[in-house]
Amino acid sequence: MIQKKYESAAKAVADMKDGATLLVGGFGGSGLPSHLVSALTERGANDLTVVSNNIGAVSDGVAALISNNQVRKIICSFPVGPHAHELIQRIEEGRIELEIVPQGTLAERIRAGGAGVPAFYTPTAAHTELGEGKETRIFNERLHLLEHAIKGDYAFIKAQRADRWGNLVYNKTQRNFNPVMATAARITIAEVDEIVEVGEIDPETIVTPSVYVHRLVKLKAQSEGRVLVNE
């Protein structure tokens, strides 16, 4: 049975523990669950492994977690940006491990995690530094790398609209890494602009079904934020 709880973003992330693996949606600032990230900086969970396309700005992206010394490892495609110097400094000091993954491979590793596929072969990054040390195999006379699926303890995602069960609709480019990350985490938390009753969303527009969404936080009035928990 679905139990509805009405809580803030802070309470939605309150049970995150040190050492967790966190998937953070978004492509640049588009579809970035910045309120959840901000709540986590206040929560203070440390030693995190963070998976995201890019590190973002220090105020609202993964960079905020880096500045707050909460990150042990980052898996991303685009680690550069206006605050990349903080990441570089921490890497040089041995405080953060960085794994750079080609963008398409990153998306597919997360998708595979959600689909229950443990690993797959891809020609992307073969014969480059990113492919060094990885298992290889030749298919159709072309070298392929073995890439392993990514799964998270938590996923922070952003959507435009949800019903109270957690079916999600995205606004245009919000539909980037968010849908695949929703499927690949043990607990998926979505921040949304609007929550409506079940049946008010056209089923044909639903991208992420409620079975993948465990908690909802409404943004426009945090005092009315809703958290949905699947029991």
From the alpha carbons, calculate the radius of gyration and give it in angstroms: 18 Å
- Average pLDDT figure: 90
Number of domains: 1
Principal-axes geometry comes out as: globular
Topology, number of strands: 13
- The computed structural class is alpha/beta
Q: Which fold does the CATH topology refer to?
A: Glutaconate Coenzyme A-transferase
User: Termini distance?
Assistant: 6 Å
Q: What are the secondary-structure elements, in order, as H or E?
A: EHEHEHEHEHEEEEEHEEE
The number of helical segments is: 6
- Unreliable stretches covering 5 or more consecutive residues: 1-6
CATH superfamily: Glutaconate Coenzyme A-transferase
Largest sheet: 8 strands, mixed
The fraction of residues assigned to DSSP E strands is 25-35%
The first-level CATH class is given as Alpha Beta
CATH architecture: 3-Layer(aba) Sandwich
GO molecular function: CoA-transferase activity
Pfam family, one: CoA_trans
InterPro entries: 3-oxoacid_CoA-transf_A, CoA_trans_fam_I, CoA_transf_BS, NagB/RpiA_transferase-like
Protein name: 3-oxoadipate CoA-transferase
Question: How does this structure look, described?
Answer:
Belongs to the 3-oxoacid CoA-transferase subunit A family. Helix content is 21%, strand content 31%. With 231 residues, it is α/β, with parallel strands linked by helices. It has a single domain, classed as 3-Layer(aba) Sandwich (Glutaconate Coenzyme A-transferase), CATH 3.40.1080.10. The strands form three sheets. Strands 2, 3, 4, 5, 9, 10, 11 and 12 form an eight-stranded mixed beta sheet that branches. The chain has a three-stranded antiparallel beta sheet with strand order 6-8-7. The longest helix has 13 residues.
